[in-house]
Amino acid sequence: MAKKKIDFMCTAFRDGFQSAYGARVQTPDFLPALEAARDAGISYFEAGGGARFQSLYFYCQEDAFDMMDAFRQTAGPDANLQTLARGVNVVGLESQSSDIIKLHAEMFKKHGMTTIRNFDALNDVNNLIYSGQCIVDAGLKHQVVVTMMELPPGCTGAHDAEFYAKTLQDILDAQIPFDAVCFKDASGTAVPSKVYETIKQARKMLPADAYIHFHTHETTGVSVLAYQAAIDAGANAIDLSLAPCSGGTCQPDVIVMWHALRGTDYTLDVDIEKIREAEEVFKDCMKDYFLPPEAVAVEPLIPWSPMPGGALTANTQMLRDNGIMDRYPDMIKAMSDVVRRGGYGTSVTPVSQFYFQQAFNNVMFGPWEKIAEPYGKMVLGYFGKTPVPPDPEIVALASKQLELEPTTRSPIEMNDADPNKGVAPAKKTLEENNLPTTDENIFIVAACKEKGLAFLQGKAELGVRKVEKPAAAGSAPATGASDFVLKVDGKQHKVSVNGGAVTVNGKSYQVELADGQDGPAATSAPAGATTPVNAQMPGVVLRTLASAGDAVKQGQAIMVLEAMKMEVPVASPCDGQIAEINVSQGDQVANGQQLAAIG
């Protein structure tokens, strides 16, 4: 009896990069591995979207549309190239207006994509109707998604097989056009028995020839079991990756799944020796990139705090950048309460980031002392309807702190009425900065805001993390980011220097270097003459809102920091006049660092 062939999409060059390297990989570095994977017989690739859109502008000094063009040229004209979209959020953390949602599909079609996997983290089907239609109208294949996860132990009310069946029925009732259905478990927490039951029910609900795809991660250690359950229940396809970004926070390796299916009625139908050769090429391509240890590990605590593989390393890397990696275990523990009280949205981008941002705030400022704006907007209904009502106490806190009322209006309706969203304001921004008003540039500014504009202006900073080569003994640290070990009185200290930011044993400081000559000491205002404005968390100065000499009121925002993908206003602690601003846009600041002074 012939074995049943199981299709797979190779996620190595999108989800693999996001899950292992925080999506910070430059295109020329991986194209030889893509070519080797193509030559090994792989013809279905995840090629962009998700975090691999914004990250290229934020960190890689690259245009994502150029990357997609190069991907298509390398993979060949017949390859199925798939990208990831977040419903009305398309490829960002915030939702978009209808004209930007339409432009997203058109631009991805123009730049060589075949299929878009389209999901809503809240499983609010209303967020998939228009976005799905735009994908089909653009001439792309639409893979509509039901998002999955396991609720923290003790929680009930959603995320069981019946809930997923109802979501699928809502998709069918809404008559959303689609070419395939995907069940997507970004945190790898859905237990295999639930995966089996979900897909078994879906197979009964869908036409006999319907194409069902299942996606998970190895984060909790059960991905191969979950894939076996999905296949047994009737799934046509699964997602697999390639070493060095496979296993751990990523998808299982092609070789691992090939091995797991040996002796069964299923096959991947691959030339496994050619796959091995392709992985060797890939490992060589990525040898200079820093691979964080948590990217290749199974994390047993994730079922209590369902952190997706694609978000885990991105967040830990940002914590490393800010010198607070030691607080990560506390944030993972805090995330469980955030999920329990937030309405059970699936822990997948953008909701997973909302969860982590709120957990971050709960650790840094105290439980529920500061509502993260995106999390607050989610519980208030600004991203759609959550699977169950959020905790009323949290809703009240969010409404008070954000000065917003709960809403049941659709995100697209609100965004279409927002004069700051859409094609027109993005085009105006380009014109004001003497930049070409191409469709690509309009979408870049709409999706990436200030950082997209900085890229188009040639001001983007490189944030790719590569392994530092050890310096020669006795030599001074090189310019740019450097890591070294400093021995003082026989005790070793791990030191990282990046411009004016110095991290010692995980704690960040801002420093200035002088020439060592005698000179007048720096002057400062007499004690008590001014009130310092200090950073409440580490981050980067995104923009300043006031200047020296300006009169300010207590609570008025004088600058905005970016921390953990959040915009964090820095408020004046008192009425007065700004005596000085001590930082500039783009500066990395440490927790507690003085940012300004109020006279």
What does this structure look like?
The protein is built from 19 helices and 22 strands. With 599 residues, the protein is α/β, with parallel strands linked by helices. The strands form five sheets. The protein has an eight-stranded parallel beta sheet. The protein has a four-stranded antiparallel beta sheet with strand order 11-12-13-14, with no helix packed on it. Strands 15-22-20-17 form a four-stranded antiparallel beta sheet, with no helix packed on it. The longest helix has 18 residues, at 439-456. The N and C termini lie far apart (84 Å).
Strand fraction:
15-25%
- Reading off the top of the CATH hierarchy, the class of the domain at 531-598 is best stated as Mainly Beta
Major beta sheet, strand line-up: 2-9-8-7-6-5-4-3
N- to C-terminal distance: 84 Å
User: How many strand elements?
Assistant: 22
Keywords:
single chain; 599 residues; alpha/beta; OB fold (Dihydrolipoamide Acetyltransferase, E2P); eight-stranded parallel β-sheet; four-stranded antiparallel β-sheet; 19 helices; 22 strands; 18% strand; globular; ligase; biotin; pyruvate carboxylase activity; 2-oxoglutarate carboxylase large subunit
Summarize the structure.
The chain is an alpha/beta fold and 599 residues long. Helix content is 36%, strand content 18%. It has an eight-stranded parallel beta sheet. It has a four-stranded antiparallel beta sheet with strand order 11-12-13-14, with no helix packed on it.
How is the topology of this model organized?
Blueprint: E1 4-5, E2 7-10, H1 15-21, H2 27-39, E3 44-49, H3 51-58, H4 64-75, E4 80-85, H5 98-110, E5 115-118, H6 126-137, E6 141-147, H7 161-173, E7 180-184, H8 192-205, E8 212-215, H9 223-233, E9 237-240, H10 254-260, E10 266-267, H11 272-285, H12 309-321, H13 328-341, H14 351-365, H15 373-379, H16 392-402, H17 411-416, H18 423-432, H19 439-456, E11 482-488, E12 491-498, E13 501-504, E14 507-510, E15 531-534, E16 539-544, E17 551-552, E18 557-563, E19 566-571, E20 576-581, E21 588-589, E22 594-598
Parallel strand pairs: 1-10, 2-9, 3-4, 4-5, 5-6, 6-7, 7-8, 8-9
Antiparallel strand pairs: 11-12, 12-13, 13-14, 15-22, 16-18, 16-21, 17-20, 18-19, 20-22
Helix pairs in contact: 1-12, 2-4, 2-11, 5-6, 5-19, 7-8, 8-9, 13-14, 14-15, 15-16, 18-19
